[in-house]
Amino acid sequence: MARVECRGASESVALDGDQGCFKQLYELSPDPTWIIEDNHFVECNDAAIRTLGFLSREELLNVHPSKLSPPTQPDGEDSYVKAERMMAFAKDNGLHRFEWMHTKADGTNFVAEVTLSAIQLPGRHVIYCVWRDITERKQMEQQIRQLAFYDPLTKLPNRRLLSDRVSQAMVASKRSARYGALIFFDLDDFKSVNDGHGHAVGDSLLIEVARRLASCVRETDTVARFGGDEFIVLVDDLDEDEAESKRQATNVAQKIQSVMSQPFRLTVSDMGKADTTFDTHCTASIGVAVFHGSQASQDNLISRADAAMYRAKRDGRSLIRFFEAKH
Fold first, then answer.
1. Residue 98 belongs to what H/E stretch?
2. Which has the least CB within 10 A, 100, 197, 271, 273?
3. Residue 17: pLDDT band with limits 50, 70, 90
């Protein structure tokens, strides 16, 4: 464990929480700063009090770090257990940096980057702890992820995220020996609505379609916007029998058709005029391709579902068709 020192002009002065340069560095730090001894907070600076919204230093001292945190961390681990593990790592390795969810006096949570440094004070081995609020950084990361992996209009996964989910489903199917299915969904009458009433109304229709699609599947399934008025539903963990899996996929497709058969109430806004609402019906053609393991490539699997959907359109629209391999 390293002895941390604050060097003056002519001598080396050990960091001491009660005097000298250590106290100045400690108190003047803009970040919440703590001293941990025997796995409890024994000292903190004013920034820690302000950040957490407490009235006095005494409220924060002689408590385990998990007491200023929610019961569990975002990864699901118990806060007490994880705090003990993080402090043990810092003691063994001298330094440890990680993210941690903290709780303020008013009950709100925030994410901080925590740095633990094992230091030696006269006669004492302690942990010097510094927090840095990274809420804005996490929000920015979330926004970047949202733009990269989700459709900005419907908020559904986009092609990139769908590709990742399909890859995972194919691996899981190979491991479990259960079938999965891709359901390719295309609106039959979208162009007439979009051209006749404007893009804003068309966007409203797509948003409602996305909402209805999401209501038809399990939380573990994926509904993605493939592009334009095309959507793909990924249903995994079906049966080990192909015929039964097709029956289950058919049930999902029929549920989608039933939900989409209900009229869509849309609003038309015209500048200078009162908004008007109207009901419209918008049927869908659906193509289904079941898969088992990685017998087909991901692109080939999507192409199969797409081909089945176009066959549904050719056969009269508002139909469900399965991909059938030509022999």
1. strand 95-103
2. 271
3. very low
C-alpha to C-alpha distances, 109 to 2, 45, 194, nearest whole angstrom: 33, 20, 44
C-alpha pair distances (Å), 72 with each of 59, 101, 107: 21, 9, 14
Classify strands 95-103 and 12-14 as parallel, antiparallel or unpaired: unpaired
pLDDT at 93 over 90: yes
| Active-site residue flag, 18 | no
Q: Reply yes or no on whether the pLDDT at 197 is more than 60.
A: yes
Taking the model in full, what pTM does it have? Answer: 0.64
* List 188, 221, 229, 306, catalytic entry: 229
Cα–Cα distance measured from residue 107 to residue 84, given in angstroms and rounded to the nearest whole number: 23
* Amino acid present at 103: T
**Distance between CA atoms of residues 61 and 246, nearest Å:** 62
What domains sit in the chain, N to C, each tagged with a CATH number? Answer: 5-139 (3.30.450.20), 150-322 (3.30.70.270)
Residue 233 CB neighbour total at 10 angstroms: 24
Q: Quick one: pLDDT band at residue 96, thresholds 50, 70, 90?
A: very high
- 122 versus 257: the higher-pLDDT residue is 257
pLDDT value at residue 235: 96
CA dist., res. 300 & res. 184, Å (int): 13
